[in-house]
Amino acid sequence: MTGAKLPRLHPASWATDLLLSEVCSDKNRCIFIIGMYSLWMQRNSRRHGEAVKPIRLAVQWAIDTAYDLWLLSTPQQQTVSQRTAAAWRPPPEGWFKCNTDGAFYPQRGRGATGVVLRGNTGIFNAGCARWYPHGLDALTMEALAFRGRDSCKG
After folding, report:
1. Farthest-apart Cα atoms in the chain, separation
2. Which residue in 48, 71, 43 sits closest to 58, CA to CA?
C-alpha cells in the first residue's frame, strides 16, 4: 500500500538501523516509524478492550501521517509572484479622471461611497462622499459610487 520496501535489517539493531540515512530514504523512514507507532497503538487498544481499527485504516492513517511529517521536514520552495503595484495614472492633458469607491459593513448593513476628480497633474479638483444607512452588499456600494459620480460638484 505504501510503496515502501523494508530493507534487510539485522535482528539486534533493526530499530536503530532504520534511523540511518544509508538504510532508507527520509520518506520511507517516516512511513516505517509511523507504521510501527500505529501497530503499537492497535496493540494497546486491543489489550485494553477498546475497539480497534481495521488494518487497512491503520495503514492508511500511517501513510497519511508519514506523508504530512515528510512534507513538514522538506523545505518548500516559495513562489514569488511578480505583481506590479497598482499606481494612479494621470489622464491626458486637458482631461479629468474620476475615481470611485464603495465600502460595505456587512455586520450593520451599512455602506459608504466616495468620488474624486483629478486633472492631469494629479491635483484634487472635486470630490464627494456619501453615507448609506442601509446597504445590500459591497457590489451595490460600488455601483452607487459609480452612479454618484454624476452628482459631484466642484
Report:
1. 89
2. 43
- Contact yes or no for 73/26 (Cβ under 8 A): yes
| 25 and 66 part of one domain | yes
Task: Please count the residues of the chain.
Answer: 154
Contact 5, 23 (CB under 8 A): no
pLDDT digits (tens, 9 = 90+) for 73-89: 777 676 666 777 778 88
Query: pTM for the full model?
Result: 0.41
pLDDT tens digits for range 58-69: 777 777 777 777
Q: Are 2 and 61 in contact (CB under 8 A)?
A: no
The better pLDDT of the pair 86, 153 is held by 86
Residue at 2 is within a domain = no
| Residue type at 81 in one-letter notation | S
62 plus 23 within the same structural domain: yes
Range of the domain at 141: 96-151
